[in-house]
TrEMBL record:
Domain of life: Bacteria
Its EC number(s): 2.7.1.49
SUPFAM superfamilies the UniProt entry points to: Ribokinase-like
Keyword Transmembrane part of the UniProt annotation: no
Record key words, sorted: Kinase, Transferase
Name of this protein: hydroxymethylpyrimidine kinase
Length: 251
């Protein structure tokens, strides 16, 4: 780690009442990896390991007020963006990024919960093209990449995409870092056989943002974050009857 004080990491995401994903997973990850976690809640969800039963989206002005409150006083070293809740919030957050000092921003384009519940409608998905130019990295899984228009859309942006392979078939999975010029790097790993995988995407993107906040270069931040997620899967406590939360590995 390269900073004397904990890097200030802002997560802009939804709340998960079950604690496995969203803001709760982000705070846990950022804190565990030596960062100072700050939040801008975009939505409140009622969910557990079995699924999402209710969603209440925040007004865009309230999301912006949270961002301004921490940036004006505490400052921000890196940002993780998760569930945004709607096209209006995407537009508002996108505009706010223009006003912040250039810093690492990791966008996890959350569209569907691990349980299968939809967390983004078609209008929201279309709006992602508005915010992508203002981030440093996009981390879609295969299904999210398809909803964004497929890997061919990457050429439209001057931003790298980490296309995650966790939803692919087979026992050997690959995450690929791609930009408009093609493949930059890839990481392979054996599939970890567990149903306690709730919050993998949130945890990965929050970890990447934290390592970037510590001053790590992009590829190293991704590598360290993948190791953290894999270790977290292997030490899951086994809570819940469905897709339960991951654990927190020893440092």
């Amino acid at each position: 780690m390269t900073t004397a004080r904990p890097p200030r990491i802002l997560t802009i995401a939804g709340s998960d009442s079950g604690g496995g994903a969203g803001i709760q997973a982000d705070i846990r990850t950022i804190t565990h990896l030596g960062g100072h976690a700050m939040t801008a809640v975009t939505a409140v969800t009622a969910q557990n390991s079995m699924g999402v039963t209710a969603v209440e989206v925040m007004p865009p002005d309230m999301v912006l007020a949270q961002i301004s409150a921490v940036s004006d006083d505490i400052g921000i070293d890196a940002i993780k963006i998760g569930m945004l809740g709607g096209a209006d919030i995407i537009s508002a957050v996108s505009a706010s990024l223009k006003d912040l000092t250039p810093l690492p921003v990791v966008l996890d384009p959350v569209m569907v919960a691990t349980s299968g519940a939809s967390l983004a409608d078609d209008k929201t998905i279309e709006a992602f093209s508005e915010i992508i130019p203002h981030v440093s990295l996009v981390t879609p899984n295969r299904h999210e990449m398809d909803r964004l228009g497929g890997e061919q859309v990457i050429v439209n942006f001057d931003v790298p995409f980490l296309v995650k392979g966790g939803h692919d078939d087979g026992d050997l999975l690959a995450d690929r870092l791609i930009d408009r010029n093609g493949l930059i790097a890839s990481w392979e790993g054996a599939r970890i056989d567990t149903r306690h995988d709730h919050g993998t995407g949130c945890t990965l993107s929050a970890a990447i943002a934290t390592f970037l906040g510590h001053g790590q270069p992009m590829e190293e931040a991704i590598s360290l974050s993948r190791d953290h997620v894999r270790n977290s899967l292997q030490c899951a406590p086994g809570y819940g009857a469905g897709h339960g939360p991951m654990g927190m590995p020893e440092r």
